[in-house]
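Dear Dr. L.,

I hope this message finds you well. Following up on our conversation about the binding site, I have prepared a predicted three-dimensional model of the protein together with zinc ion. For your records, I am including the exact sequence and ligand specification that went into the calculation, followed by the structure tokens. Please feel free to forward this to your student if that is useful.
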Amino acid sequence: MGIQTHFDKFHNKIKLGREDDAYKKARDRDDSIKKDVASAFQSAGYPVVKDFIQGSLKTHTGIIPISGDYDIDRALVIEDDVAPENPVTPKKKTLEVLEERGFKNAKIKKPCVTADYTGDNVHIDFIIYKLSGDQHYLAVGKGSSDEKNREWAATDPCGLTDWINDDSLFGVDDRKEVLAQFRRLVRYIKRWRDVQFSESVASKVYSIGLTVLVKEQLQYSFSTEGARQDLQALINTVGAILDSNYFTEEETGKYRVCVDLPKEPWRNIFDGSSLDTGTQIYNKLSRLKEQLIKAEGLSDEREQCKILNDLFGKDFEIPEPPKGGSKSEKAKYSSAGIVTASVGA
Amino acid sequence: MNKELILSHISGLDCTARLVEAGCKLVVEFVVNEKNVTLIHTFPDELISMPKFYLSNVQDFGKLAHILTNQNDESGEVCITDALSTAINTDQPELAYRDTVDKHLQLLTQLIEDPAYNHAEQLREFDAHWKILCDNAAGGSNELFVVWDGNSSESMQVRPPRLETGSDLQTKPVALAGSYTSDRNLTYALAIAKLETRQVIGKAISIWLSHLEPPPATQYNLLEWYFRIVAFADQPSQRELRKLRKKKYREFWLVFSAQIPNGETMFALHWNACSRSTFPASLDGIEADNWTVTPYRVRSISPSALIPRGGGSLDLKGMSVLLVGCGSVGSEIALRLTSAGVGQLTLSDPDKFSEENLYRHILSVRDIGRLKTEALAELVIQKNPWVTIDAFDKSLQEFRNPVILNKFDLVIVAIGCSNVERVFAEFCNQEAINVPVINCWLEGFGIGGHAIISIPSTKGCWHCAYVDPKTLTRGLTSNLNFLSPGQMIMRNHRGCGTQFLPYNGIAAGYTAAIAADLAVRFLEGQITSSSKVSWKGVDVEAKRASLTTTWRYRHFTDSLHILPLHDNNCDLCVAR
Ligand SMILES: [Zn+2]
Ligand SMILES: [Zn+2]
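The resulting structure of the complex is given below.
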């Protein structure tokens, strides 16, 4: 066994997919509320023409939250022709529905309307768009926003998802493997964020920001035989992120982070983030790289796992020390019973 | 060629040059030690090698190295030792001529001014001058095959030529040391020579010289030269010579060995008298008994002479290798190993040679129906005589015996069947067999081939080559392979049980080459830890057959490079 096996185990523990039980519960909640919101929109004269799940589930980069709160980003789209002039209007309508259903803490945020199901650890963000031709416009604004602070902002939610899922830069035969490694790296680094940052700062180290960083700087790594080497890929990718110009040293040892959205509206994802947040990201990424390199240099797997456990938390397990004396049990072969081979001599 | 231009270029050197005979010839003159040196060159129709110059009035200079003369010749060809390996600028002949003349100037100046250098150089090219002497002697191009290990002082029996034309072994006399008459390694060579039909005509004695003089310029000085050099024969040789004088002979050979600056040289003298006479101890005796003496070139047939000459290593003579699988790959490995000098080879394969194997196997039509091992043993020994070959018809499974396996320095498996190889590898692991094992195999459609060496107690084992890159557990097919597993690759022309893997002799040859290279490098001590090596072919045929390739194929750029075998995900290597 090598260190990759431990990364595989770690990945299996943290990855969140649509079919996961925990997530299904959240989905059921989401479905029933979505229906209520949709019928409220219908009555208000701007029916929902399509809805979709946005975010990490669409890009296969979701992780099981350590806080236990499952996030769902639910997009609802109405038509431009019938959409209210004021983007906050449908958001208020959504809030009404949520409050009717007994959500005490539902509130309108600038880009969405959020609600927590404290009982089920589910957190849903409703994101409202209007659609004109192929162009989506995001309903931006809080309940109290005046005209200056609210708008239908041109955006490209599908474009961003497609960009994250894009694999056209990799060789035709290799893209599946490379894309899968990219997704694993995003998950690792998101979990690392949840473990290494205080809850308040972690919430400002946006997942989409980390995803764009990994996507833009991906240094995939496979052995010559094609075996994945996530540790190597992570070291090189984090190194490339640090070596690029996302971080600007504004004062000695103080960094501002800037990561532009690769799609409309092209804004800085970390717009308005503090110097402290940027500095923490920079310093913690530097330590991540340092520690990963240290782990890579070790030959003892347990020692490697100890470092990785410190970086990624308890889900990166430290194996039991090998039991002395016992001869290695009959090793497991791959599950296949027969495979046609093509060799001769 | 612009000869005036050439002339103007040469004139820059420390000599005079002119054209003669209507510009057909070039004459270059200069002075060394107050002697006039004249070089003559005849322009060729086309300049394809370094221009040749002849030295006039050779007699004026005494014996010079690098001047090839025929008897009584007034002039001699100047030999520039590295002429054959010199590239010349044919686009600018004037430069080629200038540099060539300059080289001649320097060489002749040094030879004439420095007698010690001249002497050493004459010894260095002893063989070339001896050959000229032999070519000019009575009978012309006299050559003697000497089948002798070069170490003992045993005498040899000489048999005369048998035919006028044909194999040199039949058209030249052969001196055979007693210890070789029953050498089974030479059975084939001796059969070609048909020695049994050739009556012994005399004996040959080996003489070791502690010092050698350059050969005489002409045969007339040969005897005088002989008596000068024979004084440097070592003690055992002197004893043999004294013994020789106790009997009378009509003819005999003396086979000389001596060190020259660039190695060892051998040459022979044939002595012939009108009637049985005593071998002379001095020049006077010669005339009394009417002895004539003829120079012979020696063509040595012995492992110490021929194995290194063919690029093999005498150090591998004591090495013992077991080769299981004598198919198109294994059979070529056998040839390559023995040509590298491996002295003991054990072959095993239960198969008989069939006409279907003909075009990609080194065996021939006459071997159809024979055990592959027997036919191969015969072929190998004809090609590379000094090898001991044992042949068995056992399969790899039957070699699962520590006592047998541990006798070998190396085991090579060329059976192309990973199931059997796995069972064998597991046996070696469990029984802690201490012998390194090479496994080699090729893939269909010319896509490539692979060889791995697993050296016990070093990092990397057979299973390392079988870690599945997807699951990171032990896989059923090798991770070295270039074609993805699970594809129908065998060709089947005539129904069940007749399928075969499409590949050709070139693919087999490459695969044998990388395996043999691994073997020889290991035996010579260059490889000390488990390693792997692959050759990668093109995927044209595979694509045509709609086959997919592996990640390794697509990214592989290390053809023929020896790489570490160890795979981080191998559970066996971790357990060790
Ligand atoms: Zn020469
Ligand atoms: Zn191994």
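In brief: Residues 21-44 of chain A form the longest helix (24 residues).

With kind regards,
A. P.
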